[in-house]
Amino acid sequence: MHVAEDWRKQLQSDDPKVRAQAVKAIALSGDQANLKYLKEIVENDPNPQLREYAKKAARHLYTSGGSQEPEQSPIPQPFPPREKPKAERRQEPPEPDSSKEPPSKKVNQTERTNAEAKVQRALAYHMKGQTQKALKSYVQGLDLNPYLVEDTFSRSVAGEITGLNPDIAIQKLMDPEERKILLNPKAQTQVEDSSLTPPPGKMSKSEEIEPGGEIPLVQIWLRFFKMTEEFFRRILAQANTEDTLISVLVYVIASMLSFLISSFGQLQRLNNVLSEELGGQIPNLSPLFLGVLISMIFLTPLSFYFGVGIQYLGMRVFGGLGTFKQHAYIMGMIIVPMTVLSLGLTIPALVPVLNCIAGLAGLGLSIFSIVIMVRGMQAVHNLSTGQTIAGLIVPPLVLAIIAGCLFSLLGSALMAMLGNMLGVEGSLPQ
């Protein structure tokens, strides 16, 4: 079987995500004749994440065609085998108290073959986005043959489907308690309450769960100051539109409250000025503030999604591979605590003695929010720090330049029109 025509077009695309879809299709084709396409990607593709992805796809395609690999592998293995002393190899996991079956059990050829098939099926599930099925299939293979932990390909699959370092992934999958958490997302809720205050320098239990356990929405917001790139990668698996909409709703409410509190002080100062200028006759400004408040109900969510759209466009321009749903979800997780904290600073800002401190705290919050935003976008799109910052800055800058040019042209046109009208009027007989 040869690569289909649409595969060929996808491989020639400038979009790394489209090329990644072609790699995935080749890996699932089961035809080892297509390995030459993967080899070309590994050797020539400019995207490092895609080259690594092609390595894993090639490894899967090798093993799916039979139990024996080619003597000379044209594509590097995803994780090079580690050289260890014999004494250390004897202590290789699985440990006796972490496995259902002792490492010394004899594994016959049938069990070995079935276990390898389970691991291959786990990778296939993962490439289709079915992470839970991938975990269950991998664990079944591990129970059939505990010695899979010594196999390079098996270790790489464990790291791939969990998103962890292969050594850590193997330890978690061999540990009965950790395995239960990975395979049963509902078990996560039993440890959430105690995970809010982890010991210094140690990651909380809920942050270690990947990808099965879901962290409740409110608890994600509460970890605003603990949001690392690794944390964002862990919650990407639970990205959904419903939580994003809830975040936008909370964002709208917090923004309206912040406007009400800040406008109260401004209204008082404005009334004082008007009372002096107009001799005590103060106009009723309530309809104006009410109109602004009502408009915020519609304009705030529109501005959120417009901003997310501009950011997403910038990420894709610089090689981002994430989806719009994931991008909007992560931004929703960031903007809610950021807005609520800003709301808390509006009250001391009304006090003359505290307004300077509140201003400095607001500046620090803005800078920290930018750092958090960069971490989130790196997790979503697998970009470097420089690419992420460029993706966030360049599109708004380009739009600002375009808008400035348009306003300049419009102003010039209006001035020319006004000049013509004045010229015509000046030429009329007196």
Strand fraction: under 5%
User: What Rg, in angstroms, do the CA atoms define?
Assistant: 29 Å
Helicity level:
55-70%
Mean pLDDT: 75
Summarize the structure in words.
This protein is mainly alpha-helical. Among the domains are: 5-64, Leucine-rich Repeat Variant, CATH 1.25.10; 238-410, no CATH class. The chain has helices at residues 5-11, 16-29, 35-44, 48-64, 86-89, 109-127, 131-144, 152-162, 166-174, 176-183, 205-208, 217-222, 229-235, 241-277, 286-317, 324-349, 355-381, 385-426. The protein is elongated. It starts with a helix and ends with a helix. Mean pLDDT is 75; it is low at 66-102 and 189-212.
List keywords for this structure.
18 helices; 68% helix; Leucine-rich Repeat Variant; single chain; mainly alpha
At a glance:
The chain is mainly α.
List the helices and strands and how they pair.
Blueprint lengths: L4 H7 L4 H14 L5 H10 L3 H17 L21 H4 L19 H19 L3 H14 L7 H11 L3 H9 L1 H8 L21 H4 L8 H6 L6 H7 L5 H37 L8 H32 L6 H26 L5 H27 L3 H42 L4
Helix pairs in contact: 1-2, 2-4, 3-4, 6-7, 6-8, 8-9, 13-17, 14-15, 14-16, 15-16, 15-18, 16-17, 17-18
